């Protein structure tokens, strides 16, 4: 990469992250980048905008994928597929998200790109966790964590610890979950960059243990961090948790404030995967207020959105994609075995030919020696 192109990429990242550039200047910056450098910049723009402006972020990811495909930039393609998987997961299209993740994983594996493999496996684990398939989720997440530890990537290790803690919490191994969250929090403190996720996850554990006061304390600390960093998606998750906690604590007024905010923010971010949880909690909270009609309507919304996101059709699609991936892997293994078998056969044929030639050469030598000694015998006579 030339110094000029490197500076251009850094400039693009700074412009996006600082949030002060207008769309025209952003497009102008992108237009000056070429080929794989532009693909990389577009993928970086997706990550910068995903939590603030998801629709705009998806546009960058699709542009990155189209360009990467056109110029055969495999690494750029894998990153774009992964980014699109993230976008579809946020929208609640879990089967589509998994399709993109699996495609990304296949490309990263062909490139032997450890960071890409680890990141994508972590994302795949998230899909299985959302589908309550904790065995598959644990398999992918542990594989991802092991790779990040091998690479000594502390930021990714922190995120993996959080994800592993969440999985252990889901299967009610609370002590192990708290250990992961505590380690993640301590490591982020050591780095001097405190993450909101460990605090939120600790709040989740306290919630599961019905310690609502401690849960709210952790949620509020985490929410403050997310608001400071303008992480709207992270803030949305915590706002929902606060709404749920106040609902369970039979404090309907603050609960409804948080739930109304969560619904507005999820629509703004097109984060439709959160809708079933929000509507279910709204129904429960209206019941606490004695508003039975509103509770019933919210329950209907919950049933509708839940079936759309977590229904049998989505589960079937995911199972089919897994089966296709397994068949493709078997085909690769079969092709490899066929190639190895052909090589073995060729080597065997070569060995046999060598032996035949060796024997023929020996016979020729013996024949020549026999002819030589026979001629000498004749001369003596």
From TrEMBL:
Residues 1-23 form the signal peptide. InterPro entries: TPR-like_helical_dom_sf, TPR_rpt. TPR repeats lie at residues 78-111, 158-191, 196-229. Keywords: Membrane, Signal, TPR repeat, Transmembrane, Transmembrane helix. It comes from the Bacteria. The chain crosses the membrane at residues 353-373. This is Tetratricopeptide repeat protein. The lineage of its organism: Bacteria, Pseudomonadati, Bacteroidota, Cytophagia, Cytophagales.
